Amino acid sequence: MTEDRGELVLRLIPRLTEINSNGHIFGGWILSQMDIAGGIVAGRLAQGAVATVAIDGMKFISPMLVGDIVAVYAREERRGRTSIGIRVDVIATRGADQQQIDLTSGLFTFVALDELHRPRILPTG
C-alpha cells in the first residue's frame, strides 16, 4: 500500500462474533467497513447520495486477528462524469509493540445519485 493512505475515516475493533472458521476476522466484515468508509468520502465529494457500483483490485494482504485495532483510510483516486473511484486501505495495529500491518486494499467506484436514484453529474472540484 502507498504511504499516502488518505483520510482516516474509521477506526474499529472487530468483535468475537466476526471470527471465521479459521480464527481470523471474516473478510466480508472488513469489506462492509471499507464500503462504509468509501461511501462517506464519496458522498462528501459528490455532495449528496452515492451508490457503490464496483469494487476493483480488492486484495487481502494479511489476515485480521482478534484484538487488532483496525484503521480504514480512503482517498479519491479517479473521477468521471457521474462516478468517483475511492481507494480504501485497511491497516491493523497489533500487539504490545503496536506493529502496523497492511491488511487489505481496494478501489471502490461510487455513482452520484439524484433524488430519483438515477446517476447525476458530479460537482466540479
From TrEMBL:
Gene Ontology molecular function terms on file: long-chain fatty acyl-CoA hydrolase activity
One example of a Gene Ontology biological process annotation = acyl-CoA metabolic process
Q: Which InterPro entries match?
A: Cytosol_ACT, HOTDOG_ACOT, HotDog_dom_sf, Thioestr_dom
Q: Give the signal peptide, or none.
A: none
Keywords, comma-separated and alphabetical: Hydrolase
Q: Which SUPFAM superfamilies match?
A: Thioesterase/thiol ester dehydrase-isomerase
Keyword Protease (UniProt):
no
Task: Report the family membership.
Answer: Belongs to the acyl coenzyme A hydrolase family.
Q: Can you name this protein?
A: Acyl-CoA hydrolase
* Species per Swiss-Prot/TrEMBL record: Sphingobium herbicidovorans (strain ATCC 700291 / DSM 11019 / CCUG 56400 / KCTC 2939 / LMG 18315 / NBRC 16415 / MH) (Sphingomonas herbicidovorans)
